[in-house]
């Protein structure tokens, strides 16, 4: 595997094989295998409850925080099994950042929200370094100009769209290799959505991005690869253009033409 | 027949009104009208018309009766007696005793008493009524007669007017039943009124308590200067002689009591806040569902232990241990009762308040914040310290202040374990005393509410009230400030 900067689109960043997830007795994800490319946006689409968010949360082991959840199968990040005993989920989550459905800024200042990750991972030893990280992340998240004069104000005082961009800035501040986005625009209005989508397109140069979305237009706009999930099974995984123009599975066809879901 | 019987009668009338209203409304529906409100609302409306006027009459008469009767009775008193309020209060008490006794006699005996043929005292003693106090004078018997006469008039009037109000009200309500009548909305208005009345009673009670304390405190401050009370550093009220009315040279310095209260409460909080908060964090963030289901009720059992039992515990167990293990070896004190003993046990008492309230508050922090923090690679304790606790802080501060006002007002533990010596000292192994302890000691025993030695208890109570009120207001202020910041 090559390191981030030289990699071409299509290099595999995350490789999942035969992943199964159980919530207690319920079998939520059935035998999903998928290869997620580096420096590209991969979209997961599918009707509600199809397991796409659950699968997303396997990639940074967020499902560990749920007592009754059990994951089997292998997920390799850069060839390393993330479920191996030697992997610390806390360290893993610094490498695989996550943005949630609802903007969830911490009850802290804008600055401290972004500085949170770098501080706990000891990425900056002094204030100027930390300032630089915060500024560059806010710039990457296209938020700097809007908040540079009020970095000490609470992050919860921003508008919904700004809050979500703050959460993206917070997620990229730990310099992750993969960025997971769980319906990042579902709580936003169309204008804020457009800004976040632009942002995703720019961030694609630096990270492997996986986005779960309910909006097929959004998947078509931002992603290069699309996976269609249905009832816990990954039905089809292919180039986004192919999925939306010429899907090979009948169920995919029905879903994207709006016949169900 | 008393007021409670009357209320039962009114309720029966209301039920009758309900049934009558319902029948009329049902008949109206059957006749093909499409009424605005369903029959149940019409029935409830009639019921309200029965209840509200008659209850208003009962309340008015019950309030007015003692005032009118008392004035009429005192009108019989000789003029010079009326000047002396204390004395005429005593006589008024006797008159009502005599009046009670008179009702036990038959008409012939009463007549003999009135003309003075038979002395009243032995006659009543025969019937089992012992009259105390001063000699019985003819005007007292006249006053007692007036009292009995007025009372029976009022009882009759009460019944008559109440039932009249109920019947007329019910009839008016019943006549209003028409298809277009908006009974549903009117019933809604009455429900709102009842709810407002309930909260008004709670508020008025508080106001009443404050005013009763305030008036007694003002009497105290008319005898002892507020400067002596609030800034005096010596507590020495001397003796409360049975009929003393003036300042006997006692000193009522509040400061030693305030210091004792504050010192004990601070020790209690130093013990209870970390333990309570940490156990809340454990229960909310770390414990599995099963452990939490066992641990939380056990901690809450602590809250159900009567404070007098904590007092025993302090007196019998904690006090001697602290004395023998710490105070005596260090040469700091030799008493089992001490600030430390009371503070430690009081701390144990308020642990469940802090832990239970904090646990609820921590649980109310949205899961999305924890997810956000875990998603950035934070550990559990980092998440708790940097995200969960700051978000829960206003509630936790509220819980702590609530526990603090409980500690300040706590009585039984300090009565048993803090000692009675008034002292301003930093040594926690000495006896000290608190405001509540002194209120208890000033009010127990044979007391008359005229001497400053007793009235000081009200001034102390008022001070305590103001302190806890201030604490609560401050807590609300903090909570609001943080809420603005984090919402």
Short description, anyone?
The complex is a heterodimer of chains A (261) and B (487). With 261 residues, chain A is an alpha/beta fold.
Textual characterization of the structure:
The complex is a heterodimer of chains A (261) and B (487). By secondary structure, chain A is of the alpha/beta class. Chain A has 10 helices and 10 strands. Chain A has a 6-stranded mixed β-sheet, sandwiched between helices. In chain A, strands 2-1-4-5 form a 4-stranded antiparallel β-sheet, covered by helices on one side. In chain A, strand 9 and strand 10 (233-239) form a beta hairpin. The longest helix of chain A has 14 residues, at 127-140. The model of chain A is unreliable at 1-9 (pLDDT under 50). Chain B has 487 residues and is mostly helical. Chain B has 2 domains: 3-181, no CATH class; 251-486, MetI-like (MetI-like fold, Orthogonal Bundle). Chain B is 77% helix and 1% strand. Chain B has helices spanning 3-30, 39-75, 79-83, 85-102, 107-115, 120-126, 138-175, 183-223, 226-231, 255-286, 289-304, 307-330, 339-364, 367-375, 380-409, 412-417, 435-443, 452-486; strands at 235-236, 251-252. Chain B has a two-stranded antiparallel sheet. Chains A and B meet through helix 2, helix 3 and helix 6 of A and helix 14 and helix 15 of B.
Strand order of the largest sheet of chain A: 6-7-8-3-9-10
Listing every helix as H and every strand as E from the N terminus to the C terminus, the arrangement of chain B reads HHHHHHHHHEEHHHHHHHHH
Q: What is the general shape of chain B?
A: flat
CATH topology (level 3) name of the domain at 12-103 and 178-256 in chain A: Rossmann fold
Unreliable residue runs of chain A: 1-9
* Strand-residue proportion of chain A: 25-35%
CATH structural architecture of the domain at 12-103 and 178-256 in chain A: 3-Layer(aba) Sandwich
Q: Percent helix among the residues of chain A?
A: 25-40%
CATH class of the domain at 12-103 and 178-256 in chain A: Alpha Beta
Run of helices and strands of chain A: EEEHEEHEHHHHEHEHEEHH
What is the beta-strand fraction of chain B?
Answer: under 5%
Low-confidence segments of chain B, ≥5 residues, pLDDT <50? 240-247
């Amino acid at each position: 595997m090559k390191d981030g900067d030289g990699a071409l689109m299509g290099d595999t960043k995350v490789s999942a094989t035969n992943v199964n997830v159980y919530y207690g007795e319920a079998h939520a994800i059935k035998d999903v295998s998928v290869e997620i490319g580096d420096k590209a946006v991969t979209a997961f689409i599918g009707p509600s409850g199809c397991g796409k968010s659950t699968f997303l949360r396997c990639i940074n082991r967020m499902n560990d925080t749920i007592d009754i959840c059990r994951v089997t199968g292998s997920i390799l990040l850069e060839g390393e099994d993330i479920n191996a005993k030697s992997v610390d989920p806390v360290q893993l989550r610094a490498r695989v950042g996550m943005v949630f459905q609802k903007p969830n800024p911490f009850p802290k200042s804008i600055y401290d929200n972004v500085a949170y990750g770098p501080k706990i991972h000891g990425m900056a030893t002094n204030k100027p370094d930390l300032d630089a990280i915060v500024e560059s992340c806010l710039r990457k998240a296209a938020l700097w100009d809007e908040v540079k004069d009020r970095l000490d104000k609470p992050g919860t005082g921003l508008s919904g769209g700004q809050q979500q961009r703050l959460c993206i800035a917070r997620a990229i501040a730990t310099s992750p290799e993969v960025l997971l986005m769980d319906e990042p625009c579902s709580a936003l209005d169309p204008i804020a959505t457009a800004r976040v989508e632009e942002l995703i397109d720019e961030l694609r140069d630096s990270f492997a991005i996986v986005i779960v979305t309910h909006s097929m237009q959004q998947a078509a706009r931002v992603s290069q690869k699309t996976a269609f999930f249905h009832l816990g099974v990954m039905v089809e995984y292919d180039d986004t253009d192919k999925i939306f123009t010429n899907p090979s599975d009948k169920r995919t066809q029905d879903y994207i033409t709006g016949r169900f879901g | 027949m008393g007021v409670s019987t009357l209320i039962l009668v009114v309720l029966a009338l209301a039920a009758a009104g309900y049934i009558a209203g319902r029948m009329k409304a049902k008949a109206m529906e059957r006749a093909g009208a499409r009424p605005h409100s369903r029959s149940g609302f019409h029935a409830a409306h009639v019921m309200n018309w029965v209840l509200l006027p008659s209850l208003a009459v009962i309340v008015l008469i019950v309030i007015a009766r003692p005032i009118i009767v008392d004035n009429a009775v005192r009108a019989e008193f000789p003029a010079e007696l009326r000047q002396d309020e204390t004395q005429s209060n005593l006589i008024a008490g006797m008159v009502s005793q005599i009046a009670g006794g008179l009702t036990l006699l038959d008409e012939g005996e009463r007549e003999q008493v009135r003309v003075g043929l038979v002395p009243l005292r032995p006659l009543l003693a025969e019937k089992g009524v012992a009259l105390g106090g001063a000699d019985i004078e003819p005007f007292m018997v006249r006053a007692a007669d007036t009292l009995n006469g007025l009372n029976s008039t009022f009882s009759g009037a009460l019944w008559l007017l109440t039932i009249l109000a109920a019947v007329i009200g019910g009839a008016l309500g019943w006549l209003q039943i028409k298809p277009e009548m908006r009974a549903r909305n009117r019933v809604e208005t009455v429900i709102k009124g009842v709810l407002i009345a309930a909260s008004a009673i709670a508020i008025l009670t508080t106001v009443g308590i404050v005013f009763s304390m305030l008036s007694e405190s003002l009497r105290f401050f008319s005898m002892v200067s507020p400067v002596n009370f609030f800034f005096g550093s010596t507590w020495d009220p001397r003796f409360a002689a049975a009929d003393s009315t003036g300042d006997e040279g006692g000193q009522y310095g509040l400061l030693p009591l305030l210091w004792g209260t504050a010192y004990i409460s601070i020790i209690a909080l130093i013990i209870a806040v970390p333990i309570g908060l940490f156990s809340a964090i454990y229960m909310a963030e770390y414990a599995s569902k099963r452990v939490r289901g066992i641990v939380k009720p056990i901690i809450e059992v602590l809250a159900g232990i009567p404070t007098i039992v904590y007092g025993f515990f302090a007196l019998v167990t904690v006090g001697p241990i602290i004395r023998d293990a710490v105070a005596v070896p260090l040469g700091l004190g030799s008493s089992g009762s001490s600030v430390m003993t009371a503070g430690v046990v009081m701390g144990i008492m308020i642990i469940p308040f802090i832990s239970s309230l904090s646990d609820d508050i921590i649980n109310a922090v949205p899961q999305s914040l924890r997810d956000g923090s875990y998603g950035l690679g934070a550990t559990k304790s980092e998440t708790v310290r940097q995200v969960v606790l700051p978000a829960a802080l206003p509630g936790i501060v509220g819980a702590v202040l609530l526990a603090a006002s409980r500690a300040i007002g706590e009585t039984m533990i300090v009565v048993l374990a803090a000692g009675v010596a008034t002292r301003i000292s930093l040594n926690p192994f000495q006896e000290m005393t608190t405001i509540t302890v002194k209120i208890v000691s000033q009010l127990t025993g044979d007391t008359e509410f005229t001497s400053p030695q007793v009235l000081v208890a009200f001034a102390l109570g008022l001070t305590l009230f103001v302190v806890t009120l201030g604490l609560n207001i401050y807590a609300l202020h903090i909570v609001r400030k943080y809420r603005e910041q984090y919402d």
